Amino acid sequence: MVQLSATPTWCFLSTSPPQPPPPLTLPSSRPSRRLASASAPGSSSGSLARLRLPLPQSVASAMRRRRAAPPPPAAAAGGEASGTDADEKRDGTDLKTLAARFWKVAAPYWWSEDKTQARLRLAAVFTLTLATTGISVGFNFLGRDFYNALADKDQEKFTTQLLYYLGAFAGGIPFFVLRDYARETLSLRWRSWMTSYYMERYFKNRTFYKIQSQSMIDNPDQRINDDLSAFTGTALGFSLTLFNAAVDLISFSNILYGIYPPLFIVLIVYSLGGTAISVFLGKNLVNLNFMQEKKEADFRYGLVRVRENAESIAFYGGEENELQLLLDRFRRAFDNLSELLIASRNLEFFTNGYRYLIQILPAAVVAPMYFSGKIEFGVINQSVSAFNHILSDFSLIVFQFQSISAFSAVIDRLGEFDDLLDGNESSQSSQREIIDGINIIFKTSSPSVLSSNGSLTQSDPCVVLEIRNLTLLTPRSGNILFTDLTMELKDKDHLLVMGPSGSGKTSLLRALAGLWTSGTGDIIYHVRGSESNSSSDELSNKKSEGEELLQSSRQRRENGIFFVPQRPYMVLGTLRQQLLYPTWTENVHNSANDNPQNTDPLPFLSEASTSDAVGVKPEMPSTSELIKVLEVVKLGYILPRFNGLDSMHDWASVLSLGEQQRLAFARLLLAKPVLVLLDESTSALDEPNEAHLYSQIEAAGITYISIGHRKTLQKFHNKALIISKSDSPDSNLPSWEIKSIGQIPVEESSPFPS
């Protein structure tokens, strides 16, 4: 069967006597988390061992990373790949690579901190599976005697066998229910650990930002949510199916071979031939499944963008354009799904014929023995049941080909994501050894500091920021923005960065934040008495190198460096959480988990962290301090409007951009950093509010660097860094200049277009 992305398709491994296959209908569109279930115990064979495996919810395609050239600018970073012809086709992954990726994705959990629970639960699942197989063998013999009594018209024996049957049902059903429950709880626990594991790596070293800004891979959110769920459930289901198949082969082969050896040979030939034909007919299903989820995800991503940008689209009157774009994306998904349906139809012509034929094949082979009186009637039923068991084991590829092809796509997709996360970690650790990069260094303002060459250097306690020979390049194209920038910023030296659009002003802030490291030079933050902000590993690096390198965003923040972007980020949470973000985020989450009545069965979900550093931060503000800071930034009126600090809203929608910018300044005043970098952070405010906010951070003793085009910004700064393109016709290199604000003539106070 074929499905759209979230629709489960069930493939059956039947152990019951021959029955017509189920009608060919599309399953319900409601996703199901059940990976297997016991068949009805009332089947004539008495078998309870039917397993059914879902087609994974996420059968995805991923754009191959382009190594030769960057993607076109129109590609939506992190959300989709560009719609070029090259993206419509994809090379298949060879079996060896697929196996390596499966092991790489699956193995870490079984050697993790949860390995004891994982292995015990897995052993319980396998034990219950073994028990259910034994029960199925018992039902096979009960079925033989039951039908023999029926054929002999022996009512007393028939009644006895019927009672045995009912007693076996009562005793056997709990094993099947417990097997399914144990399997699904283990699958959920595995998925929970993998979600924590992948999300920790996704946020570590700002990988999420690099994926988004450089279009490194499509739909990482879907890989974490849908693909991990599909992987854990299906991997466990397939593992149990293979285990059950191996036990079945041992248990039922002796039965079948003992009844009639030629029937066993017919079974092997039939299953091997069916497998070969299925592989040939379904060879395109893996890639089609792989592509389908990408196209579905691109369509869904377009719908999300409409929701998030509804007001802008309405102002532009862009409804028709959005409609056509979305219909075009849906058409691509429709076209691919049409190909998928055709390929599946061709495969099902064969697989359904394969299923129907096995209804008469075993009976036809052993019927001559029955007619000659060599076997009883019940033996025919027993041979058919054993034949179906073993054929299901030998025909896994035939019966499960669509599930296998979909699962292969999930493995490939997660393996690609895992390789990307590993590559980012290794590049972070080896970057300074392999290439020249921008180093971000924290240096304490003690009387003397051990430098990298082993000599003692004096650190000026008044210096806040020092930049040495900074050359900045764009990450992907390598375009030079400026070269050899050298400057020093002392306490209360407020710097205004000026320049035309595209000259690299915001890019400079990205470099200062450690988001962009392409280029050369050193960015040195002078930190006052923050040795405690380093972990033991970082301290050892500091002793050997004479400096503490940037390890994480939290380390930067806890050293007193704060950033305020033009459009502040509004977290999902209460107004209180908006104000405490990001300085006291951990405190808020920890206080929510401190309830002694909350016993967390999955501790790894609450222990995830992207940094090993344990830093010192200001004491968390009280409720009265939060209310006071709202009044300071002239936002006191929103408290009655939203019923206090603990109300939940979509703050990015209910607050105007100007209110969001004032809220960002409230966060800044609460955090009390040493240095703050402002990227046009008052662009949506009127001049009186802008002047009020700058006066507040000036009064708080915070040194700041601003980017902006307004003339009014100059009176809040005493230095200006002017970045502009070189006027030399022989060179395309940018130039820079540092001036005192007083040296800028009035007519040149805002010489650059915004």
From TrEMBL:
InterPro entries the UniProt entry points to: AAA+_ATPase, ABC1_TM_dom, ABC1_TM_sf, ABC_transporter-like_ATP-bd, ABC_transporter-like_CS, ABC_transporter_sub-D, P-loop_NTPase
Residues in ABC transmembrane type-1 domain copies: 123-406
Pfam families, sorted: ABC_membrane_2 (PF06472), ABC_tran (PF00005)
CDD domains xrefs: ABCD_peroxisomal_ALDP (cd03223)
Transmembrane segments: 122-142, 162-182, 228-247, 259-281
A GO molecular-function descriptor: ATP hydrolysis activity
GO CC, one annotated term: membrane
SMART domains: AAA
Location of the ABC transporter domain: 465-750
Residue ranges, annotated region (Disordered): 1-90, 528-553
Keywords for the protein's UniProt record, in alphabetical order: ATP-binding, Membrane, Nucleotide-binding, Transmembrane, Transmembrane helix, Transport
Compositionally skewed regions (Low complexity) per UniProt: 26-56
Keyword Glycoprotein in record: no
Similarity section: Belongs to the ABC transporter superfamily. ABCD family. Peroxisomal fatty acyl CoA transporter (TC 3.A.1.203) subfamily.
Protein name: ABC transporter domain-containing protein
Organism: Eragrostis curvula
